[in-house]
Amino acid sequence: MLFSELFATQIDEVGISWFDFYSIGHICLGIGLFLFWSLFYTIPKKKGRVPIFSLLFVFILTVIFAIIWEIIEHVIFLNLGLKFEDRPDSWQNMTTDVILCVVGGLGTWLFAYLIFEKDKSVIGYYIFGIIGFGVWIGIFIILRYLTLHNSPII
User: Fold this and answer.
1) How far is residue 85 from each of residues 35, 142, 151, measured CA to CA in Å?
2) pLDDT tens, 39-60?
3) 32, 33, 105, 110: which has the fewest C-beta neighbours closer than 10 Å?
């Protein structure tokens, strides 16, 4: 397998390779989705009420919305001409995107359990989640710049 089949390092490889700079964005999406849906778990719990969702349900919602996002991206965005390079992604890239979104959600879930359930620190959980989200966005911006300007990544 060629390196370019695995990692997109040039514009024409984006969406075709297993991983591209948008892959990092899908980790961010997973983190963001889990943080959003966990609001319905942490806020009622903090107020002493029984939470509407469990963290397992929050994770399931994250997975479902990761799949829905890929459908929106490849049906609606592609038809509207809003898709990068106006071409569909390969099945490998779509699979990786969903898996990385799930990984972002899973990592946030593990962190939620370690911080929120153990220490009951709702603010710490969301602060760390937002910082983690920001770090991944920074990595995404750097990789996007390097790819679009044909700079060597490695």
Assistant:
1) 30, 19, 19
2) 888 777 767 666 667 888 999 9
3) 110
